Known about the structure:
By secondary structure, this protein is α/β, with parallel strands linked by helices.
Amino acid sequence: MTAGPTGPTASNGPVYGRTYDEGRLAEVDALRETVATLPARLAGGVWRPEWRRVLFAGIGASAAALASPLYALRAAGVDAWRTDCSDYPVAAGRPDVVVALSQSGRSRETADLVTRFRRAGVPTLAVTNADDSPLREAAGAALTLGAQPDSRVSTVGFVVTYAAVAMLAEVAASGTASGAASGSVDGAVDGRWRELPDLIEESVARNAEVLGEFAAGPLARGSADIVAAAPQLTTAEAVALLLREGPLVPSAAYGTRAYLHGPMDCASEHTSHVVVGGARELALARQLTQKPTGVLAVTDGSAPVPAGVRPVTVPAHLTAPQRALVEVCVLQELVAATAAVRGNPVDEVAFAREDTKIAALAEL
């Protein structure tokens, strides 16, 4: 296994092992390794059938990664919710388990929340790219994913931790139906995960031209709103963050239904739109063309895209969390193209991070 990033001795961040472009090239192979090996680990009893009230915890890109798996768990009947860690004191309620996601395992807020809940007697499970980290030390159990070298604007780390928590959610959802009665989790991971690396490569190549055109046109200036159907909310939140952290595009993420209730009203030539989903999102895209704004629609190709809207297609036969991962990887291409057009290199640091990362629990 390749060694992970080295030198994280201060709160203002680690030395990253890859550039954004290198990370995008490496993330597909990292995903291949994850989907080939993780299902067997998950079958070994990581999830307990008595865990019926689940608190997902993460901040930044990790919070974005939790959105679509959370929706899938709720759709399966699991009482699940999400926190960015800073808004959830222990007194707010007692879940059956806290699942904490952090790509580096060094996020201060996440390690603090896990420490507090574990002290209160709540089971805690960390999901991290890092093999050793303060979060793993804080948690009672951990899924670690090989310390894959990552980029400053996360690529590999996001992909492997997202895939892990989404597969974990599948196991938990399946266990709700079968494992709770038998006393064991009988949740098989969906076999289509093994197709995703190839599908991602194919989808990026197929859509690269239209993404480049959108970056050079509407996204060459102004801000961006990223809007997605509820099952695809990870896509909206992750891509908005990528655009902010990489090419420094002022960006915001919305669920479709919330966007319809007012935020869409400021559509103009100064704001580009990326809409992700199905029929309702295509209807929104059509409405947005009434204003002088650029619109990109990400769909599975099952319905026609309105005139004036640039189309991006992803495979139609995936689960919603699987599709969200394909969408994020495809839209990473938009981030790279926008950075080139705007002259804002993705790997260039805008601010030194203060008080966000820790090297050890003693820093809390």
